[in-house]
Design goal:
By secondary structure, this protein is mainly α. Helices cover about 85% and strands about 0% of the residues. The chain has helices at about 5-15, 20-45, 45-50, 55-65, 70-95, 105-135, 140-155, 155-165, 170-200, 205-215, 220-230, 235-250, 250-270, 270-275, 285-295, 305-325, 330-335, 340-365. Helix 7 (about 140-155) packs across helix 9 (about 170-200), helix 9 (about 170-200) packs parallel to helix 11 and helix 11 (about 220-230) runs antiparallel to helix 12. The termini are far apart.
Length: about 375
C-alpha cells in the first residue's frame, strides 16, 4: 500500500511546473536577502568595519538572532529557499571568490611567502585535528572545521569545508564563532605586537615581513586588512597578498581533504579500492581555481570585476544568513567550552609558531 503513494509523489514531483518550484524557494531567498542587505549596510559603519566585522560575519549573527526568535514560525514557508542558499548559493559564492585573486599575486611575495603559507596551513590544520580529537575528544567535523577556519581564510574556509564533511549547521556555526572571536582579537593584538617587537627585537622583521606574518596567521581577509592598517601601508599590502595566497590554497586543500575522507570510508567499508571509487570531488573547488586562472589572464573588462565581487559577497552572505537561521542556541551551548579552548590554542600557535616559521623561512630563503 505504500508503493502507490510514493510513485504518485515521484510523478507529481517530476511534473510540478517550474514556476511553482521557484515560488517555493522565493520566501526563504527573500529572507536571506533581507538579512544580507542589513549585514552589508552595517558592515559599512566605521565602528564595525574597524573591528574587522565583515558582511559575512554580521549575516550569520543576524541570522542566528532571527533563527532563534521569529524564524521557527516561518520555517514551513522558508525552509526550501534557506536550504538552497545554504548549499547551492554557497558553492557559487566560493567559485566567484576566485575573481578576487590572480596568480600574479603569488609572484609578488615570492617563494618564501608561498612556503610560509603552506607550512602554516598544514601545521595549524594538523594541530587542530590532533588536539581536537585526541586531547579534547571533539568529533572529527568540529575539529576540522575549526582547523580550516584558523589555517586558511576564516568563515569562508569553514563554509567551503562544510559540504566536503557534510557537517551539521551547529558545528559550522561553532567554528565560525571561533573565527569571529580570535580573528577580532588579532586586529588589536598584531599592531601592539609590532610596537613591542620594535622595542624588544624578538624577531628581525621589516614592515613588509611583518605584513607577510600577519597575512599568514590572521583568520579573515577583512581582519588581515584591519590589522595591517594598524602597522603601516607596506605591512598592509604584504599582508593582503600573503592572505590571498592562503585563500588560493583553499581549493587544493578541499580536494585533498575530500580524497582523504573518501579513502578512509572506503578502507572501513571494503578496502582501499572502494575508497578510490568513493572519492567525492568538490567540483566547486576546481571551478574556484579555474576562475582564479581566468581572472589572471585579465580578459574580463576591469569594470566588470567590482560588480561580480559584490555579487560574490551577496551570495556568500546569503549562505551565512541561511546558516544562522538554521542554527539553534541550544546546540551551541551543548558544544561547550572545548571548541573555544581548541581555537584558543590554535590562536597561540598562529601567533608564536607563526612568528617562528616566518623568521626561519625568511632567514633561510629571504
Amino acid at each position: 500500500m505504500n508503493t502507490l503513494p510514493l510513485n504518485k509523489r515521484d510523478a507529481l514531483k517530476n511534473t510540478v511546473p517550474q514556476p511553482l518550484r521557484i515560488s517555493r524557494v522565493i520566501p526563504g531567498l527573500a529572507l536571506t536577502g533581507v538579512i544580507t542587505a542589513l549585514a552589508i549596510w552595517l558592515s559599512d559603519f566605521p565602528t564595525l568595519s574597524q573591528l574587522g566585522l565583515s558582511a559575512l560575519t554580521l549575516a550569520i549573527v543576524i541570522g542566528m538572532v532571527i533563527g532563534n526568535t521569529f524564524y521557527p514560525a516561518a520555517r514551513p514557508w522558508c525552509e526550501e529557499g534557506v536550504t538552497l542558499a545554504k548549499q547551492r548559493l554557497l558553492r557559487l559564492g566560493i567559485i566567484l571568490y576566485g575573481l578576487r585573486l590572480t596568480f600574479a599575486q603569488i609572484a609578488d611575495v615570492g617563494a618564501t611567502g608561498i612556503l610560509i603559507d603552506a607550512m602554516m596551513l598544514c601545521s595549524t590544520f594538523a594541530l587542530a585535528c590532533w588536539l581536537g580529537q585526541r586531547v579534547f575528544k571533539l568529533d572529527r567535523d568540529t575539529s576540522m572545521l575549526i582547523g580550516a577556519g584558523s589555517s586558511i581564510c576564516g568563515a569562508a574556509a569553514v563554509m567551503a569545508t562544510e559540504p566536503v564533511l557534510n557537517a551539521k549547521a551547529e558545528k559550522v556555526t561553532v567554528a565560525v564563532a571561533t573565527v569571529v572571536i580570535f580573528g577580532t582579537a588579532a586586529i588589536f593584538l598584531y599592531p601592539w605586537l609590532w610596537q613591542l617587537n620594535a622595542h624588544y627585537h624578538w624577531v628581525n622583521f621589516t614592515a613588509a615581513q611583518f605584513g607577510i606574518y600577519t597575512g599568514s596567521t590572521v583568520h579573515e581577509v577583512a581582519q588581515v586588512v584591519a590589522a595591517g592598517q594598524g602597522v603601516s601601508p607596506d605591512a598592509e599590502n604584504a599582508a593582503v597578498i600573503a592572505k590571498m595566497i592562503r585563500v588560493m590554497m583553499l581549493a587544493p586543500f578541499l580536494l585533498l581533504l575530500s580524497g582523504w575522507i573518501a579513502r578512509g570510508k572506503g578502507v572501513k567499508e571494503a578496502g582501499e579500492k572502494s575508497g578510490l571509487r568513493n572519492i567525492t570531488i568538490p567540483w566547486f573547488a576546481l571551478m574556484f581555481i579555474l576562475v582564479a586562472a581566468f581572472n589572471s589572464l585579465d580578459i574580463l573588462p576591469h569594470s566588470w570585476i567590482p560588480p561580480l565581487i559584490t555579487l560574490d559577497t551577496v551570495l556568500l552572505a546569503m549562505a551565512m544568513a541561511a546558516l544562522g537561521l538554521t542554527t539553534h542556541i541550544s546546540a551551541l551551548r551543548q558544544a561547550g567550552l572545548k571548541p573555544m579552548l581548541l581555537a584558543a590554542i590554535l590562536f597561540v600557535w598562529l601567533i608564536a609558531g607563526g612568528a617562528g616559521i616566518n623568521e626561519l623561512v625568511q632567514h633561510l630563503f629571504g
